[in-house]
C-alpha cells in the first residue's frame, strides 16, 4: 500500500516558480483540449497532448517527467468525468485553467543520498533539496503541494509499504464498541479508551440541518431552473465538505487507535458487529441512522486497512446484550446513570461496558458465566478528543519506512 508523508520545503521561491510553470502547462492542456472540442468536436488523445506539451514547455526549467505528469493529471480528471457522465445530473469536464498547480516528480527525477532527497528540475537547473534523514527508501513519487491554511509549499512523499505480519509473542486482543454517542470505545483487558463523538456528531447534525433546508427550498422551485441549479450546487458543496470533515475525524481517530495498538502490542482487534455495518450503504441516504451506518462502514474499513498494514488481525463479534450485562457476574440490567453499578460489586464507566463485554464474548465465548476474568484493577476510562489541527498521526503509528524523527 501507499503512504504519504509531508515534509517542509526550504526553497519556497523555487517551489513557487515550479508551481507556476505547472499551472501554465495545466492551463495550456485545458485550453488546447477545449479549442479542439469546440472547433473539431474531438477530444485530443493523451499521447498527442504529451507531444504538444513537450514542444510548448521545452524552455521550462522543469523535469520532462514532471511536465508529462501535469498532462497525466489532467487526463485522470477527464477520465473520471467520462465515468460520471451517466450518473450525475449535469456533469462538466474539468474546464478551469489554473494559475498554479501541483508539481509531480516521478522516480527518474528522484535521488536519495546521505539523507538528502534531491529532486531534479532538468539538466543545468537548480534541484530541489529536502532533508529527509530518516527516509530509508526511495519514494514512488513526490509532489509539491501548496498548503493554503499555512500559505507554504510542502513536499508530499509517497512511499510503498509492504504488508508484513508482526509476530507478537503475546496474544493480546482489543475490542471496539461502535456507537452513536461515541464513535468508538475500546477495551484491551486493562484500559478503556473513549473516542469523543461531540465534534463528529455536531458535523453530522449541521449537515442534516443544512441539507434539509436546501431540500425544502429546492422542492419549491422548478427542477433545473437557475435557482434550482444554484441550490443543487450548494447541496453538492455541503455534502462534500461534510464528508471531508467527517472523514478527517475518522482518519485521526483510527490512526490514534492503531498507534495505541502498536504501543500496547495488540495483535487482534475485534469489532462489535452492528447489524448492517458490513453492507455497503451509499452516502445519499436520508435518515440520520443511515448516515451513522455510513460512518461505521468507513470507520471499520479504515481500521481494517490500517491494521492490516502493520500486521494486526481484525475480527468481528456478534454483540447482543453487550451493553447491558455485568462484566463480572453476567446479570443483565440497563445502566441508569454515568456509572454501571451491579449488585455483585462491579462498577465501571457505563460507556465502556459494551467494549469490555465484546472482549469477554470474543475471548471466553459467553457473557452469562460468573467469572473473575478481569485481572487486577481496571484503569479508569480515558477520553480522546478530536482536534482539527492536531498533527496527523500517520507518522506516529507507521514506523516504516521512516524512523522516529520524520521532520528530520
Ligand atoms: Zn455483577
UniProtKB/TrEMBL annotation:
Keyword Metal-binding in annotation: no
Domain Cas12f1-like TNB: 296-358
Keywords associated with the record: DNA recombination, DNA-binding, Transposition
Keyword DNA-binding carried by entry: yes
GO terms classed as biological process: DNA recombination; transposition
Domain Probable transposase IS891/IS1136/IS1341: 156-277
Pfam families (alphabetical): Cas12f1-like_TNB, OrfB_IS605
GO molecular function: DNA binding
Family: In the C-terminal section; belongs to the transposase 35 family.
Protein name: Putative transposase
Amino acid at each position: 500500500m501507499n503512504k504519504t508523508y509531508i515534509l517542509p520545503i526550504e526553497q519556497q521561491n523555487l517551489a513557487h516558480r515550479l508551481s507556476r510553470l505547472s499551472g501554465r502547462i495545466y492551463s495550456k492542456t485545458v485550453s488546447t483540449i477545449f479549442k479542439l472540442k469546440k472547433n473539431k468536436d474531438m477530444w485530443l488523445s493523451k499521447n498527442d497532448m504529451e507531444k504538444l506539451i513537450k514542444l510548448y514547455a521545452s524552455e521550462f526549467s522543469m523535469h520532462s517527467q514532471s511536465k508529462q505528469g501535469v498532462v497525466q493529471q489532467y487526463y485522470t480528471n477527464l477520465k473520471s468525468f467520462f465515468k460520471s457522465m451517466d450518473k450525475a445530473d449535469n456533469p462538466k469536464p474539468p474546464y478551469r485553467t489554473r494559475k498554479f498547480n501541483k508539481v509531480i516528480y516521478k522516480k527518474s527525477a528522484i535521488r536519495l543520498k546521505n539523507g538528502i532527497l534531491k529532486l531534479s528540475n532538468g539538466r543545468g537547473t537548480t534541484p530541489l533539496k529536502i532533508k529527509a534523514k530518516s527516509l530509508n527508501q526511495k519514494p514512488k513519487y513526490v509532489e509539491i503541494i501548496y498548503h493554503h491554511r499555512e500559505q507554504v509549499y510542502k513536499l508530499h512523499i509517497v512511499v510503498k509499504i509492504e504488508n508484513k505480519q508482526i509476530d507478537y509473542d503475546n496474544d493480546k486482543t482489543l475490542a471496539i464498541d461502535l456507537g452513536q454517542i461515541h464513535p468508538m470505545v475500546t477495551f484491551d483487558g486493562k484500559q478503556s479508551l473513549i473516542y469523543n463523538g461531540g465534534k463528529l456528531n455536531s458535523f453530522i447534525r449541521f449537515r442534516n440541518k443544512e441539507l434539509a433546508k436546501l431540500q425544502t427550498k429546492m422542492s419549491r422551485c422548478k427542477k433545473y431552473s437557475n435557482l434550482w441549479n444554484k441550490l443543487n450546487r450548494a447541496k453538492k458543496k455541503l455534502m462534500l465538505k461534510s464528508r471531508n470533515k467527517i472523514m478527517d475525524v475518522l482518519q485521526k481517530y483510527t490512526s490514534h487507535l492503531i498507534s495505541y495498538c502498536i504501543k500496547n502490542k495488540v495483535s487482534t482487534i475485534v469489532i462489535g458487529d452492528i447489524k448492517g455495518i458490513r453492507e455497503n450503504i451509499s452516502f445519499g441516504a436520508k435518515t440520520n441512522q443511515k448516515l451513522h451506518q455510513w460512518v461505521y462502514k468507513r470507520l471499520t474499513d479504515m481500521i481494517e486497512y490500517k491494521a492490516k498494514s502493520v500486521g494486526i488481525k481484525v475480527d468481528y463479534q456478534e454483540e447482543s446484550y453487550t451493553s447491558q450485562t455485568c462484566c463480572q457476574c453476567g446479570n443483565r440490567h440497563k445502566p441508569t446513570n454515568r456509572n454501571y453499578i451491579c449488585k455483585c460489586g462491579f462498577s465501571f464507566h457505563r460507556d465502556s461496558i459494551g467494549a469490555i463485554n465484546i472482549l469477554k464474548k470474543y475471548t471466553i465465548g459467553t457473557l452469562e458465566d460468573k467469572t473473575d476474568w478481569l485481572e487486577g484493577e481496571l484503569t479508569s476510562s480515558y477520553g480522546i478528543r478530536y482536534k482539527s489541527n492536531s498533527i496527523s498521526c500517520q507518522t506516529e503509528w507507521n514506523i516504516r519506512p521512516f524512523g522516529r524523527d520524520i521532520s528530520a
